[in-house]
Amino acid sequence: MLVVRYQVRGQTFVGVRTDDGAIHRSDATSLASLLAGDFRSSVEQAAGGPVETGEVRLLPPVDGRTEVWAAGVTYERSSEARQEESEVADVYARVYGADRPELFFKSVAWRVAGDGDPIGIRTDSAVDVPEPELAVVVAADGTIVGYTVCDDVSSRSIEGENPLYLPQAKVYAGACALGPGIRPAWEVSDAYDLSIAAVVTRGGEAVWSAEASTKMLHRRLDDLVEYLFRQYDLPEGAILSTGTGIVPELDFTLTAGDTVAITVGEVGTLTNPVVDASSLIPTSGGPQ
């Protein structure tokens, strides 16, 4: 099953999509409320709820005060890529082998793109890439209750120029996509043995693809979560993306019009078209 947020007839609901494709409506008003309470009990109860009959549009599987965080340099390939692009390469080598992981804030819930929504690339960046990742869904008490797919869209050129530019390389309009839903943790046989595959299509043809596995993960998922919760409270839980083992070569960059598809075994496939990030900002936005 998948725990999903969705819209039908203009209203937003939380529910469970069962293996037969039916979506059962939950009594819960938000995913955040599930993460603040007894997640498993609520999900299992929702699986017996009424079946939606209208046209359903899936929404990003995050809402309320649930925060999206990410871990960096958790795979050897990521460490190599960061050192390759960076003018301060030893920083990343030291992080890879350190006890303390690299954790950074990625997005508030309302900024996250869902399956089918556009992701953005920065117009002030020379190299923008998808970062296909397994994300853990964490309840308010720090328990891993599920998994989803994350595209931690990033500017390699900005981060490579100076590690202190990390927020600008990682946090901007369209830089975070999650979906299509949340696979409950009790349905995943082994989170350390999941395939991860990505493909970028351009003009209907694949221009880049790669595969990895969570077997290659350098850190334990529960350790990443434990560091996130140190000296920090998350009353409506968190989604923590766990880093990527897939990084394109420096001569590849996303362009507007591309489509990125990321598949994590046992979890699902997340597909997003690529646009200029500036097109995702309302015309009324910006400095006042």
Written account of the structure:
- The protein has helices at 31-36, 39-46, 76-85, 90-97, 156-161, 166-170, 221-229, and strands spanning 2-8, 11-17, 23-25, 57-59, 67-72, 102-107, 119-121, 128-129, 132-138, 144-152, 154-155, 176-184, 195-202, 205-213, 238-241, 259-264, 268-276.
- It is globular.
- The protein has 288 residues and is an alpha+beta fold.
- It has 2 domains: 2-59, Vcp-like ATPase, Chain A, domain 2 (Roll), CATH 3.10.330; 67-280, Fumarylacetoacetase-like, C-terminal domain (Fumarylacetoacetate hydrolase, domain 2, Alpha-Beta Complex), CATH 3.90.850.10.
- It contains 7 helices and 17 strands.
Summary tags:
288 residues; alpha+beta; Vcp-like ATPase, Chain A, domain 2; Fumarylacetoacetate hydrolase, domain 2; 2 domains; 6-stranded mixed beta sheet; 7 helices; 35% strand
Mind summarizing the main beta sheet?
A: 6 strands, mixed
Roughly what is the average pLDDT, rounded to an integer? 93
What order do the helices and strands follow? EEEHHEEHHEEEEEEHHEEEHEEE
Total count of strands: 17
Number of helical regions: 7
**Tally of domains:** 2
Class of secondary structure makeup: alpha+beta
**Which architecture of the largest domain per CATH?**
Alpha-Beta Complex
Low-confidence stretches: none
> What name does the CATH topology of the largest domain carry?
Fumarylacetoacetate hydrolase, domain 2
